[in-house]
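RETRY 2/3 - previous attempt timed out on the joint model. Re-submitting the same 312-residue input unchanged.
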Amino acid sequence: MKIRALQSSDYEIINPLVDEWWGGRKMSHLLPKLLFNHFNQTSFIVEQDNEIIGFLIGFLSQTFSDKAYIHFVGVHPEYRKCNVGKQLYDCFFEIAIKNNRNTVHCLTSPVNKTSISFHQKMGFDIEEGGVEMEGVSVHTDYDGPDQHRVLFVKKL
Amino acid sequence: MKIRALQSSDYEIINPLVDEWWGGRKMSHLLPKLLFNHFNQTSFIVEQDNEIIGFLIGFLSQTFSDKAYIHFVGVHPEYRKCNVGKQLYDCFFEIAIKNNRNTVHCLTSPVNKTSISFHQKMGFDIEEGGVEMEGVSVHTDYDGPDQHRVLFVKKL
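RETRY 2/3 succeeded.
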């Protein structure tokens, strides 16, 4: 496995892959091309045999000079147990620290139990929301009506 | 009219407004909450009588230290002839210059003739694409399949 920085041209490969990796669920609207143009140093690609098997899109907060944000992580379904996600997050933590960031933020849907447990294993804490759902604190309507989110923060 | 920096809490007001301002066309998915959290110094709100009548979401490119990017601009339909857009762009140009950026980039759909003409009036050039549509150079499939775009660049 090889990790490298994201390039603008990765968009054409990743865009059709994403909906496929999510079993047909429409996800590619979360990944506009602008993310592939303007956040390359904080976004990463994992390749195996010259094929993309994972990626992470993140950036440095421009509002808060001490925060970094992970927007989207995708891993090829056949490589879900191979630590691809962990490697991507570790790369991001490293570049965030190099840029003097002391916290990383990200979020997931309350239904995504695998993601919640992954983030907890990676050392993220859940940010207290207004409501508890199945034992997890949730920010209701965070990303619009009925778009509830679990918010994570990790100190670096 | 008053212009101020965007705040995270503006999301709750703007999210439902956007689809309304576009006559029911679904636009709010282009404005996830993260944009309201992490790009506040380069994003602006125009208010009239304490009501939001326009906004601009932009950021500094993190890949290219000399570029800035305007992602989304919305103006209340009843204020479309009142220079709200121009004021927002001028504010953005100013903050981009302060941050040592020498070009601003943005894009629109080829069908959006009003937007194309607005950008040309604001001093943007059209970036050469592979195809010409109705006299305008277009980047086909730029934001995914059938998502053609006209790309703009302005030197500051």
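The radius of gyration of chain A is 15 Å. Closing ticket.
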